[in-house]
Every structure is written in C-alpha cells, then in structure tokens.
Amino acid sequence: MWTMWSYMPETALLRAMCAFGLAFLLSLLTGKKLIQFLKGHEKGGQPIRDDGPQRHLEEKKGTPTMGGLLILGTSLLSIFLFANVKHHFVWICIVVLIVFGLTGFADDYVKIKKQTPNAMTAKMKLFIQLMAALLAANVITAATPNSLKSLLFIPFTDWSFQLSWLYSLFALIVISGASNAVNLSDGLDGLAAGMLTIVFSVFMVIAIVTGVPIFSETAVPYIPKSAEMAVVCAALAGGCVGFLCFNLKKAQVFMGDTGSLALGAALGVIAVILKHEIVLAIAGIVFVAETVSVMIQVAYFKKTGKRFFKMAPIHHHFEQLGWSETKVVYTFWGVTFVASLIALLTLI
C-alpha cells in the first residue's frame, strides 16, 4: 500500500491519521456484529463482583465481555497497513498486543464458563506477563542506540541516569505495571477506554517529536525509527474511540482482560521505546492512583483488619461515597486530560 519512501519518519503523522481513522471506522462498522456474536456465545455475560457496588449487580448483569477483541482487531489491521512492520519497535508492539491479549482472552473465557469473577490465578497471570515483558524489554534495549539504551531521562530537567543492566528490570516493571494498572482501571463504563484514548494520543505526539529528525534539537532524545510508534498509538487510540461508542453507560459490551491487559502492556512498551517512562506515570496518573489504592488497601487490611478505602480500586471508593458512575468516569477523564497536558510540557 505504501512505497518504501512512504515509510520515512516525515510521513508518520499522515500515516498515523490514516491508522486512527481506519481503526475508528472499522470499530463502528463491526462493533454491533461482534457484540451480537459475544452475546450468543456468552451465557450470562461477564460475572459481576458481589462485593462491589450493589447497583452494578443489576445494571451490568448479562453484559458480554471480551470487547477488547474489537480494539485489538481493528488496531492491528491498521498497524499492518500503515506502520512499517519491518522495524523491531513495531513488531514487538504487535507481539505484546497478541500475547497479552491471548492471556486476557483465556482469563475472560474461564470467567464466563465458570461464571466467576476470578479465573486464572494471580501467580499464573503475573508469570506470563513478566515473561512477555522481559522479552519485550530485551528486544527494545537491543534495538535502541547504545548511547541511549540504558538511560532513564528525568522530565523537566536535563538529568539522565545510566541504569546499566538494571534497565531491563526497570522496563519489565514499567510494562507489566502498566498492563495491570489499566486492568484495575477497567471497572466502570467507558473509564479505561477513555483514559487510554487520551494517553495514547499524548504518546503519538511524543513519538513524532522523538522520531522525526527535524525535532532533534528539542529537549527530548532523538530515537531512530521511533516515529513508527505514532502510527501504533494512533491506531490504538482510534480503536478505543470506536469501542467507546459501545462502552459508554449503559455499556453494551465490556473491554475485559482481553483488552485491558494488552492495551496497558502496549502503553508500557511504547513508553520504554520512547524513553518516556516517567512521563507515562504523569499522563497516566489515574492508572497509577488506581494501582496504589489497591496496594494500600491490601497492606492496610493485612495489618489492621480494616479497610483504608471504602472499596478499591479507587473509582469504586468514589462510588461508595455517593458519586454516580458517570461523574466518576468524567472526573477521571478530566484529571487524565490535565495530567496529559502537563506531560506534553516535558517536550518543551
């Protein structure tokens, strides 16, 4: 579809726009059919936590899951058509999306068959995530210029730290951590997909700045071939926007682990490729808060036998305070948008 000269970094923005548009349109065109297919094969839909907000048991009962297939399918097709799949950075993103997507799919499948909110054991799921993340981290490190591969850049400063062999471990934590953070955030209609759309859009801009030579004089490092990540980010953002048309309250389908684990991992991989790992924590501050809230809740309960929050992850805490689901979602979107603007300031 594209001649070799079309894969020059300077065409990345145009190809990214095409990838976004195609993923979005395909999601709109195929979403209804996928939902009908899932309803026909998922008796009872996704099991709902009985310890969660009680209105969820009534409002969300019978809703099919595995909607992440819509995002992954449309995004991957767009990536294959508009990104240069010969680049290491592109195909490692594709592999991560598939591996983490299959892991989530297996988890969702068992949940549906056994009608239980808990399917794969945490240890099994974490093992698969860590192995895939370790592979991704090593491939990314090998494909990154030697002068940059082990550096950790501190935003808003000129500082960078040489992590040496520790960088692979750090990258592993970023990738697996991002995967689990998005997974924990996928608990309300439209919440995770909306925040992912915003953060993927931010990293599309970052990819253009780090990967196009004309921006090499900016405050961020120039990373050869990283402009292709703009196409990947745009495709994933387009898939998420299309999915939102079916996932906003009242959701016709849930993303499920199929989507959340894969999209979170892809976000972590892209941050590592672009050397903007800390910026990911800034733009994705809500994802971080969701994860930290669970960690605090578990640690506090083990120590005192009491709950620190009314419920974790923290989006459920606000629901228990009396906030409507829509208010929580839009507030968290707003916080993510503001945090993303701050993240973009690191490019100046």
Question: Which features characterize this protein?
Answer:
348 residues, mainly alpha, two-stranded antiparallel ribbon, 13 helices, globular, disordered N terminus
Notes on the structure:
The chain has helices at 12-41, 54-59, 68-82, 88-114, 122-143, 166-185, 191-211, 228-247, 256-273, 277-283, 285-304, 314-320, 325-344, and strands at 151-153, 160-162. By secondary structure, the chain is an all-alpha fold. Strand 1 (151-153) and strand 2 form a beta hairpin. Helix 7 runs parallel beside helix 9 (256-273). The radius of gyration is 20 Å and the shape is globular. The two termini are 35 Å apart.
Structure summary:
By secondary structure, the protein is mainly alpha-helical. The chain is built from 13 helices and two strands; from the N terminus they run αααααββαααααααα.
